[in-house]
Amino acid sequence: MSHQLPILHTLVTHLLPPTRSGRLTTLTIEPANILLQLTTTAAAACCPRGAVPSCSVPSRDQRRLMDMPWGTRPIRLQLTGRNCVCRHPSGLRRRFTERLPELVAAYARTTHRRVTARQAIGVARGGQVGACLTHRVGVPVGRDTLVRLVRCLPLPAISPLRTVGVDARAHRQRQRDGTIRVDLAQRRPVALLHDREVDTLAHW
Questions:
Q1: Distance between CA atoms of 81 and 47, rounded to whole angstroms?
Q2: What is the CA radius of gyration of the chain?
Q3: CA atoms within 13 A on the CB side of 104
Q4: Is the pLDDT of residue 79 over 50?
Q5: pLDDT at 120
Q6: What confidence tens digit (pLDDT) does each residue in 167-183 have?
């Protein structure tokens, strides 16, 4: 069994989110989930405000993160990072916590790839149906949060319009009307205007 441990460690490492600044130290199978402990390995950390590298480590900090599930098992990451002394000349920030931007955003509790999976579901299914689907695939999130994640996505680039259609639309049945602009060549809406005024259409 001992000769299989390095193989298992390599497999688990490949299943983790890609990061060059952290390494797997411990794997613990708990009743409700799998806990993976990661430790940062970079020689120095840069202050997020001044980008000045620092090697002084007075203490360490731990963050609990949620990652993509493995089958039916939820995955929790316990990330151990360093609290470093800021070396920026301005001295606006005395200490900062080491960050792994390729793994997780600052102050976030879920990894980038878990957020990306939720956004993909939200784009494909919308708020209420998408929220139900996230529970089925093991990345549960509420409807309002799912909509907020979709709104954080950058808008896709729009190719030059050659044939444009204009029609009226209703925000809600028997309530305030608006205007919809449609790309007739690709058969998709490109803009939703909040009223039916000529000046609004001309400004667009």
A1: 13
A2: 24
A3: 24
A4: yes
A5: 95
A6: 887 766 666 678 888 88
Structure tokens at 32: 């409700």
* Domain definitions of the chain by residue range: 19-107, 111-154, 164-203
Contact between 204 and 196 (Cβ < 8 Å)? no
Q: Helix, strand, coil proportions of the chain in percent (round to 5)? A: 25, 35, 40
What is the DSSP code (8-state) at residue 4?
A: G
Kindly provide the b/e burial profile for residues 100-124, where b requires at least 16 CB atoms within 10 angstroms of the residue's own CB. Answer: beebbeeeeebbbebbebbbebbee
Tell me: the pLDDT tens digits for 14-24?
A: 788 777 778 88
Say if residues 1 and 8 touch (Cβ distance below 8 Å): no
Cβ–Cβ contacts within 10 Å for residue 86, how many? 21
pTM of this structure: 0.72
